[in-house]
Design a protein that fits this description.
4 strands, 61% strand, Rubrerythrin, domain 2, mainly beta
Length: 49
Amino acid sequence: MRQEAILACAECKNRNYNTAKNKTNTTGKLEMKKYCKKCKKHTTHKEIK
């Protein structure tokens, strides 16, 4: 079953991306390197509630 996840920048806390994850395969929180428009660089984005 897929679940919607919102990714926020670890540095500025700006919510930039929406994605879906498979809850049975990925039990922890997602963490990806993505481009942040506010910071204007690639930063770590973490899943938030």
